[in-house]
Every structure is written in C-alpha cells, then in structure tokens.
Design a protein that fits this description.
The complex is a heterotrimer of chains A (about 300), B (about 130) and C (about 325). With about 300 residues, chain A is an alpha/beta fold. Chain A contains eleven helices and 14 strands. Chain A has a six-stranded mixed beta sheet, with helices on both faces. In chain A, strands 1, 2, 3 and 5 form a four-stranded antiparallel beta sheet that branches. The longest helix of chain A has 17 residues. Chain B has five helices and two strands. Chain C starts with a helix and ends with a helix. Chain C is of the alpha+beta class and about 325 residues long. Chain C is elongated and about 90 Å long. Classes of the chains: A alpha/beta (about 300), B mainly alpha (about 130), C alpha+beta (about 325).
Chain lengths: ~300, ~130, ~325
C-alpha cells in the first residue's frame, strides 16, 4: 500500500514507495520513494550508473520492479493502450527507424495512437528547417533529437520521461529543445521528468528535482524549497558538534583556520561565529554527489579533512 | 513590447530577473500603462525557462500593484513604479555617455572615471546629510 | 499497424516479388517446353513400342533449371533468415523497440499484426513457389514416378508452406530470445537444418507403418505408381538377408552366396535347370510406402511443421510480453 501523504494539495503524476530493481548481481535502484506533482518539470540528477535510466524505464513500464510499488498518472504501468497513450518516453539513444523519414514516423504515429497531433510535428520541424522527407539516419544528432521530441509530444502524453535528451545537442539546439518543452508544459496538462548532467539547463527550466546516487534517492522535492533548506556556513575552525547535532551536514571542508559546511537545516542556525549564505543548485548537487564519490574525486571538494 | 533576457549564471533567480526587467522597462518608457505583457507561453518560448517562474513573477508584480491580470485577455500594466518619470533614465544615460566621451578625450582611464564618480556620490550624500 | 509493417519491409517484399516473378517466367517457359517434349516422346515411343524404357532414356529440360528447382529446397529457410530473424532482433538491437512499443499499441497487438502478416507472406510465397514447381514437374513426375522420394517430396505439394511457416516462426522466436540479429540468424539456420533433417530421415519413414512384400526372386515385383522405397533385399532359403552384390553376381545374388548348382551361372554361363530350381527358394523383399499414401504424408508433415511454428510463436509471445524490453 502506498502511504498517503498528508493533505496532498496537487495531484501527483508520479508516486513511488520503496521502489527497487535488482538484476542478477546488480542492484540498479533501491528503496526509491518519490513524489512528482502534476505540471512540474522535474530534473533527474545523478552520476552515471546511479539508476536514472532504470527509474525512467520503470516509470514507463518497460521493465518491472523487483521491490516496492509505483503509481504513474494514477495507475500502475501496464501493457494497455490507455496507459501507453498517457506517457511519452524518449530514450537516450533516440530510437527512430533510421531508414524511415520524419514524415514516415508521423504517419506511423497516426496509425498507432488514438489522439495524434501530426500537424504539430510538421509545423515544429518546418520551423526548425528540418527536412521531413529525408531518412532520419541522415539527419544530424541534434535534428534527430528534435524529431524524436516532436514525435513524443505529438502523442499528447500526460507524463513525459526524457533520458538525457540534450546530451548530444549544441547549445542552440539545447535552447530550442528546452523552449519547446517549457512551452508544452505551459500549454497545460503535461508533467516532465528529465535526466541530465547539465545543471545550468536544469536550473533554468526545472522546478522540481530528484537526485540519485549509488542507486538511492538523495533528494526529492521542489527546487526552491530544497535550496531554501540548505545553507553554506563559513566560520573559524572550531568544534562543530552542536551544529552537526541539529542539522544534517552534507559536506565539510576544514583548513587549519577555517571550516566550511554545507548543511540541510533542521531549524534556524544559531551560531554567531558562522556566516550563512545561500546555496546554488550546482553547489548543492556537487556536495551531495561528492558524498559517495570515489576518493580521487571527493578529494577535489573537501580539502584538508584530516587536519 | 518588452522582450526578456534571462541570464542563467546570474546570482538573481530567474523570476526576479523578470520582475526587474519589467520595472526597468517601465522606468525607461519601453512599457507604458495599459500595455500588454507577453503571455507566459511567449516568454517561455523566448527564454526557455519554467512557466511557473513566469507566473510567479507576474503574480508578484500584480501583488505590488504594477500589473493586473484580466482573465482571458492577458496581463496588462496598471501603474508605473515609483521613481523618476520615463525618459529620465535614457536622458541621463545619454548625458553620461557625453561626459564619458569628454573624459576619455581628456585622457582619463576607466578607473579614474570610476573614482571621480565615487567622489561625486560621496560628496552628494554628505551634502544631503548636512 | 499494418502500414508500419509494410513500410519497414517493403524493400524486402519488392525483392521477393521480383524474384518470384523471375522464377515464374523461367518455370513457365521451360515447363511448357518440357511438357511438349514429353508428349512428343510419348507419341514416338508408342509407335516404336519402347515406352517401357522411356524413363531411362529420356531427359526432360536442362540441368541448369533442374538444379535451380532442386535449390528451392532452401527457399523456406530464406524466409526465416531474411525476414524472420532480423525482424524482432533488430527492434532490440537498434533500440527502435522503444519507439514501436511505446506508441499506444500493446506489444501483444504489435506481435499479432507483425507476425501474422509475416507468416502470411511466407505461406503465400512458399505456396506460390511450390505450386509452380509442382506444375513444372508434372511431366518429370509422370516419367520418373519419384515425387515421393526425399528431395522431391520436399519441394512440391503443400509441405513447402509448412516449412516456410516454421522457418519464419523460428526466425521470430530466435530474434526475440537472443535479441541480436547475427546470433538469431545462426540459430535459425541451424535449427531449420536440424529440424528438416531429423524429420526427413527419422520421422517421415514412420508416419504410417511401411508395407513389406516378399516375392519369388524370378518373378520380381514393382509396386504401383510413385511409391517410396525404404528398403529392398534378397533373402536366402533360410530367411537370412543376402548382402548386396559387390562385383560378380547373378540375379542380384553375389557369387559367394549362390547355391552350388549355380556356381557356373555366376561366371556368365546361362543357368541350368537345377540352378533355377535352387534359386526358386530365394526370395526378394521390398519395404515401401505405397503411392496412395503420398497426400496423407504431405498432410502429416505439413501438420508437424505448422504445429512447430505455432509453438514457436507462442514462445515468442511469452518472451516478448513478459520480459523486460
């Protein structure tokens, strides 16, 4: 039974509880409990192998969980036309038939989907000067990504799941892509979950965030709220036990004279020796990801720990 | 009409940038009372930011009394923000540009010009206090 | 859905249609020639009373075309290879499954339409080739009476349709299980070869119990029509099998096994009366499937391969619907 949240104000596009996926020897995802309200653009952040693709595939129903439960658009993902029509999934490798043209894909979509907006695909691609009659395999990576996104949106899904959609795009193409995405959400009735490494892009267009590392959920929530909950404390090198007791320390850096701590506040910080400042999204992400990073990488973000 | 520019790496969050740019446009006279602000979708298409961000900015502006949302028609400018009349900024900006050209011709570099400005501001503040 | 299947495979379908057209033209032209050749030979031999030996003196058609017709044995395997195996495997290998199976069509429906249309295409093509070859072989069958024999049984009648369905189903199943085109191709080819060999060599002779007829050595016996000979031999008076002759022999009995009275006959001297009497105690036997069972056998073998195809499709469905994509 998925535990009911206290007074859910907005309907949730995604709700999971203890979700896990385990292959024979590898645990790809474990104990994942998240909520994504409707109408959000949600960033899915994490290092490679953290479980982002696995989570997206579980949500799309491409793979079945080995533990826990999930509800997508109010129901369990299943092989059913109504569910399939309500989601859009764009895999990292841009799955399109290389020998077919964009126009062919549009026509296929007409036959395979109940409410299909093929005209919007044509309009969008023409506006981007992408040829509709050329084999998709002969388009550039960026153009292919645009075709795939337009096709996924034409399904008019309620939930859009994107796995590293902008990885292969140049900055201009990325901007176009994100603008189209944001516009589709602005038009209403769409929730987006998008995995990416590019924090700057995510900061711009996302208002919700799920952070995964080592197959587990580190953070899940509204970006503004999460940023407000975290603070960077800079102060003299001294005993920090009190702070550590009241707040959750995410990262500590100690030099012989100074202590810098990034904390998740459990309440107000009442230590005059420390100067508090706000935390940006990239800083936050790096701090959390640095927790489980291999020693060589962690060294870069926390110097002089042993002094 | 006003077109927005949202800087990603800026310290200011996007929705504040929108608010600031609206107020700036009102001061400069680019936007006038009664003008229509771009729709959420137009802003989103131009800047690739989250639509909720734009909504939040417009709501804040409405709360400050600067704009009002008319259901089905859009968001319209209601009042100008308190401050100098429109055109002041552009007028002063132009005379400042003339001064800079004059100073450069006289042989001043950027740092000298900045310190001159600082001195002038300080002097003016002291005069006000006095 | 069917539009997508056609669009994805239309090149292959065009090529297959072109090949079929070429084969049709070739077989029609040569078939007509062979038929007229046969009929004139019949007319000629009726005049000279030499029709009995016609089967060994007359060769119809050309070696090249005859060879091509024999090669149609491999046609069903080609379906599995070029259409079946890549079809499902490539959806996994290239990732296009994540497009096809995330439209609003369930995987079940995708498979039903795709497999259904492909199997139909295979059956139609296989049936067309078989019909052509059966018609083309008319004169030859009448002349040689060998359509029940392995090699000719497999390229005429309705069994090619069964083989085609089986090969296609095998390709689809291998593709779904292995998820990669090259291994699926290898498994399909190997599987088809093994299945056909096993059935032809070990199962087909036993669809119905064979008939064995024993006869006096001198009278000889030939079953009627296009029978299928499974075994033949000579039994000595004690009922033991006489090995086949390998060198000097008389009436099919090797010199070493001849009764004493026929010792001279083995050296080419005409047999004496006592030799004839001694040989009368020898018997010949023939084990065969009668010609009348030809269509029953065709039906049984087609049934076997259609059943195999059905099982393979069921496995494909289970694999596709239950495993992760």
């Amino acid at each position: 039974m998925i535990p009911r949240q206290v007074v859910p104000e907005v309907a949730a596009a995604i709700r999971t509880s203890g979700l896990g996926k385990r292959y024979r020897r590898v645990t790809a995802l474990s104990d994942c409990t998240i909520t994504v309200p409707e109408g959000r653009i949600c960033a899915l952040i994490g290092p490679n192998g953290a479980g982002k693709t696995t989570l997206l595939r579980l949500l799309a129903g491409l793979t079945r969980p080995t533990a826990g439960e999930l509800a997508v658009n109010g129901g369990i993902p299943r092989q059913e036309p109504a569910f399939l029509a309500s989601i859009g999934f764009l895999a990292q490798e841009i799955p399109l038939y290389r020998r077919l043209s964009a126009a062919d894909h549009i026509r296929a979509g007409t036959h395979l989907n109940p409410c299909w907006d093929g005209e919007s695909v044509r309009e969008r691609l023409t506006a981007l000067t992408i040829p509709l009659d050329r084999a998709v395999g002969r388009l550039s990576g960026g153009q292919r990504a645009q075709v795939a996104l337009a096709l996924t949106l034409a399904k008019r899904p309620r939930l859009l799941l994107l796995d590293e959609p902008v990885a292969a795009l140049d900055p201009l193409a990325r901007r176009n892509f994100l603008a189209i995405l944001a516009d589709a959400v602005a038009a209403g009735g769409l929730t987006v979950v998008m995995s990416s490494h590019l924090v700057a892009d995510l900061e711009r267009v996302c208002d919700h965030m799920i952070m995964l590392a080592a197959a587990r959920v580190q953070l899940c929530g509204d970006i503004e709220e999460l940023l407000a909950e975290h603070q960077l404390l800079v102060g003299p090198r001294k005993d920090t036990a009190a702070i550590e007791r009241d707040h959750r320390v995410v990262q500590v850096t100690r030099t012989p004279r100074q202590t810098t701590m990034l904390v998740r506040r459990g309440g107000p910080v009442i230590d005059p020796a420390f100067e508090a400042s706000d935390v940006g999204l990239e800083e936050l992400v790096l701090a959390y990801l640095g927790q489980d990073a291999p020693p060589a990488l962690a060294h870069l973000t926390s110097i002089g720990d042993n002094q | 009409m006003i077109s927005f520019r949202v800087e990603g790496r800026s310290v200011t969050p996007p929705y504040l940038q929108i608010i600031q740019q609206v107020k700036q446009a009102l001061r400069m006279g680019v936007l006038d009372v009664g003008d229509k602000l771009p729709t959420v979708r137009e802003v989103v298409a131009a800047t690739a930011i989250n639509p909720n961000t734009v909504l939040k900015a417009y709501r804040d502006l409405e709360r400050e009394g600067l704009v009002e949302a008319r259901a089905g028609h859009g968001t319209f400018v209601r009042h100008r923000p308190p401050g100098p009349p429109p055109g002041t900024h552009s007028r002063l900006g132009r005379s400042l540009a003339r001064w800079v050209a004059e100073a450069r011709e006289a042989g001043l570099d950027d740092d000298s010009m900045e310190s001159l400005l600082r001195v002038a501001l300080r002097a003016d503040t002291e005069e006000e206090i006095a | 859905m069917s539009w997508l299947v056609w669009r994805l495979h239309r090149t292959q379908l065009y090529i297959a249609a072109a090949l079929l057209a070429a084969l049709t033209v070739l077989l029609l032209v040569t078939g007509v020639q062979m038929a007229s050749q046969y009929h004139s030979a019949l007319t000629a031999c009726a005049v000279s009373h030499s029709c009995a030996s016609l089967s060994s003196t007359l060769f119809l058609g050309s070696h090249a075309v005859g060879f091509l017709v024999i090669m149609t044995l491999g046609v069903p395997a080609l379906f599995g290879l070029f259409w079946g195996a890549p079809l499902v495997a490539s959806e996994f290998e290239t990732g296009t499954g994540q497009f096809a199976w995330l439209q609003s069509v369930t995987r079940k429906r995708w498979l039903a339409v795709t497999a259904g249309e492909m199997l139909l295409a295979a059956a139609v093509w296989g049936g067309a080739v078989s019909a052509l070859v059966t018609w083309w072989s008319g004169p030859d069958n009448a002349l040689q009476l060998d359509q029940f024999k392995p090699g000719r049984f497999d390229i005429m009648g309705i069994v090619p349709v069964g083989y085609a369905l089986f090969a296609m189903a095998l390709g689809l199943c291998a593709g779904a299980l292995l998820r990669r085109t090259l291994p699926a191709l290898a498994v399909t080819l190997a599987g088809f070869f093994v299945a056909r060999t096993v059935v032809t060599l070990w199962l087909r002779p036993h669809y119905m119990s064979a008939v064995t007829v024993t006869y006096k050595l001198f009278s000889g016996y030939t079953p009627a029509g296009s029978y299928w000979q499974l075994a033949q031999g000579i039994l000595n008076p004690a009922g033991q099998l006489v090995p086949a002759p390998n060198g000097a022999e008389f009436d099919g009995v090797p010199v070493g096994y001849l009764p004493f009275a026929c010792a001279a006959a083995g050296r080419g001297v005409p047999p004496t009366a006592s030799c004839r009497q001694a040989l009368a105690a020898f018997h010949g036997f023939i084990t065969y499937q009668p010609a009348s069972r030809y269509w029953a056998f065709q039906g049984i073998e087609t049934g076997i391969f259609v059943a195999l195809a059905a099982v393979l499709i069921a496995v494909t469905a289970v694999v596709l619907l239950r495993r992760d994509v």
